[in-house]
Design brief:
single chain; about 220 residues; mainly alpha; 6 helices; globular
Length: about 220
């Protein structure tokens, strides 16, 4: 139980985020109104996604330096989790856009950049499953994973800031923390980041263990 304290923390933080995030006080702002509560879900998911994809790229780089099955599985499953959180981030962002911008999707640079980044990582997952040789799949996948990460970061965090955008914190628009992330929201927002990130780590850990169990079962069948 002592080793799983962070899982208990993840559950507690996510429960706290959900309950207080939906019922607690928020700033009464034009257009945003109650939709600002999505800040506790949409943005922390992107934080968690970024952290987990960073870990995935690091493990791919470590694999290229010193190949091992463990590093390859960590990199691959982290990318899977990162893509899952990215899709959830896109879904919550699209829902938010519907009620604040009047459309499920717009030509906003950050939205388009996020969609392209998800497609790039989707290609990585397809690439890994299309190569039958495990070592070749791991090597090519590691190189592509690093490329995907290097392409995704500018698409998500650099290019949108250089162009006009409806998205807060981009195109000259102030970020949330500059005008509406008050003290009440900070007490929920920062724990939400930790909670969603820990959930992503938890999902990755379970996926890694499941992969190794499958490997052992396959080895026993061959023996």
């Amino acid at each position: 139980m002592a080793k799983n304290w962070w899982k208990v923390l993840a559950v507690a933080l996510l429960l706290y985020t959900t309950v207080v995030g939906l019922l607690g006080p928020v700033p009464r702002l034009p257009i945003l109104n109650e939709t600002i509560r999505n800040l506790y879900f949409h943005v922390p998911m992107w934080f968690g996604m970024t952290i987990i994809l960073t870990a995935s790229a690091i493990n791919s780089a470590r694999y290229l330096y010193k190949p091992s099955v463990r590093l390859d599985v960590l990199a691959y499953e982290s990318a899977n989790t990162g893509v899952l959180m990215a899709v959830l981030g896109l879904a919550t962002g699209s829902l938010w856009a519907r009620y604040t911008w009047g459309a499920w999707w717009t030509s906003d640079p950050r939205l388009n950049g996020a969609a392209i980044a998800v497609l790039i990582y989707g290609a990585y997952l397809v690439l890994r499953s299309s190569i039958t040789d495990e070592q070749q799949s791991a090597r090519i996948g590691a190189v592509y994973n690093i490329f995907a990460y290097c392409a995704a970061i500018p698409l998500l965090f650099v290019l949108p800031r250089l162009t006009d955008s409806l998205h807060p914190g981009a195109g000259g628009n102030p970020g949330f923390n500059q005008y509406d992330l008050d003290n009440n929201m900070r007490w929920v927002f920062y724990p939400a980041i930790i909670g969603w990130t820990l959930l992503g780590v938890w999902i990755t850990q379970v996926a890694v263990r499941l992969t190794f169990v499958k490997h052992k079962l396959y080895e026993k069948q061959l023996a």
